[in-house]
Amino acid sequence: MKAMLQAQHVKKVFGQKGNVFTALDDIDLEIKEGEFVGVMGPSGSGKTTLLNILSTIDQPTAGSIFIDGSRIDNLKEDQLSSFRRNKLGFIFQDYNLLDTLTIEENIVLPLALAKVSAKEIDRRVKNIAHKIGIEEILAKFPYQVSGGQKQRTAASRAIIAGPSLIFADEPTGALDSKSATALLQSLSQLNEREHATIMMVTHDAFAASFCSRVLFIKDGAMFTELVKGQTSRKDYFQKILDVLSALGGGMDDLI
Amino acid sequence: MTLFSIARKNIKRNFYNYFLYFASMIFSIVIFFTFVSLQYNDQVAEASTMKISTAFKGASIVLIIFVGIFIWYSNAFFTRRRKKEVALYSLLGVRKRQIGKMLFYENFVMGLFALIIGVVLGTLLSKFFVMLLMKMMGFAVDVAFMISGKAILETVIVFAIIILITSFEGYRLIYRFKLIDLFHAEKKGESAPKASVFAALLAIIFLAAGYFISTQTLTSKLWLSNILMTALIILASVTLGTFLLFRSLTIYMIKLSKKNRSQYYKGINIIGTSQLLYRIKGNARILTIIALLSAVTLCAIGTSYSMFYNAKQLSNAMNPFSYAYISQGKPLDQKVHGIINHQSDHQPASLYSTKVIKQEINIDWDKAPNGYFMDRKRSTFLSNSAFNQLAKTLGQKGSLHLKGDAAVALDNQYSKTFSPHYRGKTLDIKTNDGREKLHFVGFKDYNVINSNLAGFPVVVSDQLFQKLVRSGQVQTIKQWQVKNDTDSAELTKRLASILPKKAEFTDFYRPYKDMMAGNGMLMFLGAFLGLVFLLATGSIIYFKQLTEAAADKERYDILKKIGVTKKEIRHSIAKQMLFIFSMPLGIGILHSAFALSALSDLMGRNILAPVLISMGVYTVIYIMYYFLTVNSYFKLVTQGK
């Protein structure tokens, strides 16, 4: 399997002279095509910083990043924008839906930006809405639907353009447990059936247990990783909890 | 640390944030002060023959209302941006009363400084404006620099009141809102507007009705029944129509454009269109105001400029010759000749003598309302050949060949609305064999004899003229055409002093000068108020759009995250703003076009050129506001991370 994302010696330093804080220190990681990778770590460990850098929203201080074979850490702003649009999908904790658009319009946004024909757009929306189970709410506005539905809308928007890589930043953070489970099931189905490559940052061990591999970060450096392999989800969940307790610090808000 | 010093520090530290508000306050004060000082300027008062104070008083009341609204609006914009700051004070436990006082002091201190700066700037500017006004009125006067105590007093009083009111509004801010509201200055989840077909139809009906009535001539039944009422009906129906238009028809149009999926789903269109739809409801009122303000401004500028533009032409039509008088015998004619030929500035000068018959006439034609013939009871008859000669001299086309009792009227003020339709009318005159009937076969819309001297000039056939000559006393009208008659004060004065009253001396110069002075002032007032209105109009849209930009920032952040380039964002903003700016401008121009065409009918003159120039100037300045707004909007939503 080819590597979808490669990060080498990634370093991120915040602040100016005299008052510097190293958020990420020499991180190496690789995500293969079709993987569903979780990133966990205590508060302040740098997991969101890592996601922002890998997803081109932020730039690293040092190191190099390759996504789908092309180097992205030295691209210009407008090039990055088109790269994000064409290659990446995003799911954020606070949904980031546009409240001026209907659910359907929110979903088609990436396709519209890519100037896909209206006919093709309609076909793909139907297809995805069916898969994610949001067909009935397509004509509604974001403020008219529940948090779970909003997040599934965001997930639909993230995958509709067929991105190489989907980034999810605490996607279940604002959801109740039932909606969270439904969303995670949708994501893992996408991963299994469509071979979507997903990287998800979470501090929720239950959410992480849906991944095929979980990376643990502590104080800006890689701590360990846990591969699901053939273990059942329940056992995997237990293993994740064990690692987290070994990690310690700031993880008392586990579940 | 006193509250006063906190307020003072607040201003000092956030000066940039305060700048917009501060600048608009200073602007208002400068404008008002300049205007009032013009009103109290002795030189201006001396120069104008018209009652200057009435015109200026009226204009200054309009200005007060306008400036008041403008400051109120920018104050509202300014306080909205500070809600979070106020909420923070409240959260930290500062008492409401104290916060209120602080806001009050802040506004008051700013107002005070603005007043001082405004008056100083205004004093400097007023000299420039006096010069401009004098020039427009056609006077070459050395303008002295002067400070008017009265003007300062009046400005201070007016703005002290406005500042006190807005300061009190600031004080009330903290009492008007709950803490939670202050943190969420913009409420979320505004429902999507519904397009009502009924309202859209109503908009079209109201506008069509207003336009229809305005195109009716003044002599039609609609107008004659009650002029004021009809004008009010037009105003109301156009206002209502405009509002409904923005409220429903635009929504309808945007929704329609959404239906066209392949266009709607093309690139960034989807964002711009939905954004417009989302905002249009809240914008309907402001777009209406902008459209109506534009219309009023355009009418004011268009009217005053048309007057100014046509002054020379009008004077020429009224008095085609530099001088005209009824000959009082050879010695006096020679004296006049001597005086004119003595003036080297006014050479070459040429004399035209015309034999005419003057007669009292009695016209009872109906359809000539409003005393059209009041000053035309005296008719001047001239022969066909004399007319042809004079018309040729004046460069007018079309010579006459009248036979028998045919006659042609000369009416330089001809207006379709008010003037009688001459063709087919008859007139009784006295000849040597008793009374005779003249038959009018038409009219000419220019004069060949200076109007005041001529009364109601009628051209008759040469044969008939001979008959008239035998019956009455023939008079000779001497008409002079001199060079530089627009600048002939001295010569005119000398001639007027030697010619007796019964010579009925009329000149081109004096009526022209009076008209220039009156129209110049009107033009100045129109341009001044127009400019103020335009600047305020532009600023209102600007403020409104920037308020929205602040609220929309989040949305653009999302777009950036999912990969919309800055270029696309700028493009989308430019498109949205184009819609917001062009709609009211287009409607405003349309409104004013109807109003001005009615005016053109009324004046009986073609005012296309000055109106187009006014509209062009207005549009250019308006477009500059457009670019400014797009730029600021873009910066606001893309700045930061």
From TrEMBL, chain A:
SMART domains: AAA. Gene3D superfamilies: P-loop containing nucleotide triphosphate hydrolases (3.40.50.300). It comes from the Bacteria. It holds the Pfam family ABC_tran. InterPro entries: AAA+_ATPase, ABC_transporter-like_ATP-bd, MacB-like_ATP-bd, P-loop_NTPase. The keyword ATP-binding applies. GO terms for molecular function: ATP binding; ATP hydrolysis activity; transmembrane transporter activity. Residues 5-244 form the ABC transporter domain. Keywords: ATP-binding, Nucleotide-binding, Transport. GO terms for cellular component: membrane protein complex. Transmembrane segments: none annotated. Belongs to the ABC transporter superfamily. This is Putative ABC transport system ATP-binding protein. It comes from Scopulibacillus darangshiensis. The lineage of its organism: Bacteria, Bacillati, Bacillota, Bacilli, Bacillales.
Automatic annotation (TrEMBL), chain B:
It is found in: Cell membrane. It comes from the Bacteria. Signal peptide: none annotated. The keyword Aminoacyl-tRNA synthetase does not apply. Residues 59-176, 528-630 form the ABC3 transporter permease C-terminal domain. InterPro entries: ABC-4_Integral_Memb_Prot, ABC3_permease_C, ABC_permease_BceB-typ. One of its GO terms (biological process) is transmembrane transport. It is a multi-pass membrane protein. The chain crosses the membrane at residues 18-38, 58-78, 104-131, 151-174, 195-214, 226-246, 286-308, 521-543, 577-595, 607-628. Belongs to the ABC-4 integral membrane protein family. This is Putative ABC transport system permease protein. It comes from Scopulibacillus darangshiensis. The lineage of its organism: Bacteria, Bacillati, Bacillota, Bacilli, Bacillales.
